[in-house]
Amino acid sequence: MKEFPTCKHFSKCSGCSHSLNDTAPSIWKRIENFMQRPIPLISENSPGWRLRAKLAIRKSKDGTPALGLFERGTHTLAAIPHCQAHHPAINRAATLLAEEMRHLQIDPYDEKKQTGSLRYAQFFVCRETMRVQLTIITREKKDAKRLSERLWEADSSLWHSIWINVQTSRGNNILGPEWHHCYGELFLHQRIGRVQIAFHPASFSQAHLSLFDQLLKRVETWVKPGSKLLEIYAGAGAISLHLAPHLAFATLIEENPYSYISYQNSSPNSAFKYVQGDAKEAIAYLQDADLILLDPPRKGVDRELLSAIKEVEEKKLIYISCNFDSFERDAKELMDGGWILEDAVGYWLFPGANHIELATSWKKESG
Questions:
Q1: Domain 52-191: assigned CATH number
Q2: Domain 27-45+208-364, architecture per CATH
Q3: Would the pTM count as exceeding 0.85?
Q4: Exposure of 153 by Cβ count < 10 A (0-12 exposed, 13-18 middle, 19+ buried)?
Q5: Are strands 77-79 and 178-184 parallel, antiparallel or unpaired?
Q6: Backbone torsion region of residue 169, taken as left when φ is above 0, otherwise alpha when ψ lies between -120 and 50, otherwise beta
Q7: Residue from 7, 83, 126, 322 carrying the catalytic annotation
Q8: Has 182 been annotated as catalytic?
Q9: What does the pLDDT look like over 150-191, one tens digit per residue?
C-alpha cells in the first residue's frame, strides 16, 4: 500500500477520522467479533481514489469563497483545496469554481444570516475521459447560471457537463427538487463492472469505483446460473445489469425517480422489470424470486420488508451494507428467522473513514 504523507487538513476535516496509511478502521474489530471468525478486508488506498464528492461552499476566514467539508460536529468549513483522496480533476474543478466565484463576486451561502446563494458543489469524474459532471447547488438560479457560463468558457475540456440544482430549504438536505441542465451531455456514462451506466447527477453512485468493481466480482461468485433475482434499493441497476449473464430474469425496486431515468438510459435488459416505488413494494415479488439482493441506505432495511424476508424459505440472500449499526440489527433479526450467514467480505470503500461496506451471502432452507 502506498504511504501517504500527513494530510494538513487531517485535524479539522470531517472526511477522514483514520490515517490513509492505516490497514483497517477501528470498527473492523467490532465487525469481526460479530462474525465470530476472521473475514477478508479488501482495501485500495491509491491517491485520488474518490471520483465523486459533495463539497460545501462557504466563506473562508479571509471572506473569499472556499470549498470543503465541515469540521467535526460543526458547520465551520474546513477548506480542502488539495485533498489527497479526491481525484485530481475534482481538486482542479473545485479550485476553478472558487476562483470564478471570486471573479464574479458571488457570495457563498451563510446559514445564520440567510444570505448568499451558492451552497454546495457536487463533482463526478468520468473514469474514461477524466472530465467532471458538475452540479452547482444554490438558493437561486441567477448567480449559478452566471457561474456556469464562466466555468464552461474558462475550461470546457475539464467539464463533462454542468447542472444547477435549486435548494431553497433551510434544512440539512443538500439537493433540492429543481434541476436545470446547462452544458454538456445529459448523462455521465460510467463503466461499473461489465456495464455502462448513464448517471443523472441525482442518481446515487459509489465514489470508489475500482474497489466497488472488486465487490461486484465477489457478489458474482454467490449467484447461481439461471437465478431469479429480486434486487431492492436497486439504484440505477448497476448490480443487476452486471449480474445479467447469470440471471433468468430480475425485478428491480427503487424509490428514486432519477435512478429509474438513469436505468432507462443504460441499455436496460429486456428480461428485467424495474419498479419505481417504495421498498415495501418488493414484498409482492418475494415468492417469484429465488435470490434476493438488498443494498439499503444507512438506516437499513425497511422494517415491514425485513419481516417479510425473515419468513420466506428456500431462498438465497445477498445483503450489501454501508452501515454496520443497521446491518447488525437486521442480521440478528434474519438469524432469528432461520437465515444462515454463509460468507462475508469487507470493503474499505472510504479509506480514512471509520466505515466499511459489507457484502454478505445468506441462505435459508425449508422448515
A1: 2.40.50.1070
A2: 3-Layer(aba) Sandwich (3.40)
A3: yes
A4: exposed
A5: unpaired
A6: beta
A7: 322
A8: no
A9: 999 999 899 999 999 999 998 789 999 999 999 999 999 999
